[in-house]
Design a protein that fits this description.
With 179 residues, the protein is an alpha+beta fold. Helix content is 40%, strand content 29%. The chain has a seven-stranded antiparallel β-sheet with strand order 1-6-7-2-5-4-3. The radius of gyration is 20 Å and the shape is globular.
Length: 179
């Protein structure tokens, strides 16, 4: 690594510590979910996932960082070789401003590489669904984790519930036996 880059990173980290912002450069790059779509993993058997950038307005960014976004009932679609996030609820940031004509559930464009877009297109053509799993921050950017999966039937959901209950019971027995 170049000496100048290392020196710049150390100076930036020192300046942040001086301002009371304790973080490391490595932790800035890690994806940290803000809002999770819990229903997606219950309704779909997720086989693969990828991170996609998202096109937002400034007030939407502030609202998401405050944790006010909701992915319940959200889905992703492919239109004209672009990936779109539909039905994701992002209320406007609560300021004194009144945003007339703002639609909290509007379609938002997701930014992916061409090779990822081809992969998603092939998955959708083979009958798999594209589902948003979470919305979070990576570095200074907001990203959406998108999963590729097949919809579960009612029986599969029951099996998932039974398996989770069995795992919980097993962990309880292990904790009791340690005491």
């Amino acid at each position: 690594m170049n000496k100048h880059i290392i020196l710049f990173d150390l100076l930036r980290q020192a300046k942040a510590t001086e301002l009371g912002l304790c973080y490391t450069i490595a932790s800035m790059k890690k994806y940290q979910p803000i809002t999770i779509n819990r229903r997606a993993k219950y309704d779909f058997a997720i086989t693969d996932s990828l991170l996609a950038g998202i096109v937002l307005l400034g007030t939407e960014v502030k609202s998401i960082r405050n944790g006010r976004a909701d992915l319940k009932g959200a889905f992703a679609t492919l239109k004209n070789d672009e990936l779109w996030l539909n039905n994701a609820f992002v209320p406007p940031y609560q300021t004194g401003r009144n945003l007339e004509g703002y639609d909290p559930s509007r379609a938002r464009k997701l930014l992916v590489h061409k090779r990822e877009l081809k992969k998603l297109t092939a998955a959708q053509q083979s009958g798999l669904s594209i589902v948003p799993l979470s919305l979070g921050a990576q570095g200074g950017f907001l990203k959406t984790e998108v999963g590729i999966g097949k919809g579960k039937r009612k029986q599969d959901k029951r099996e998932t519930i039974k398996r989770r209950a069995a795992e919980r019971e097993a962990s309880r027995h292990i904790k009791r036996s340690r005491k």
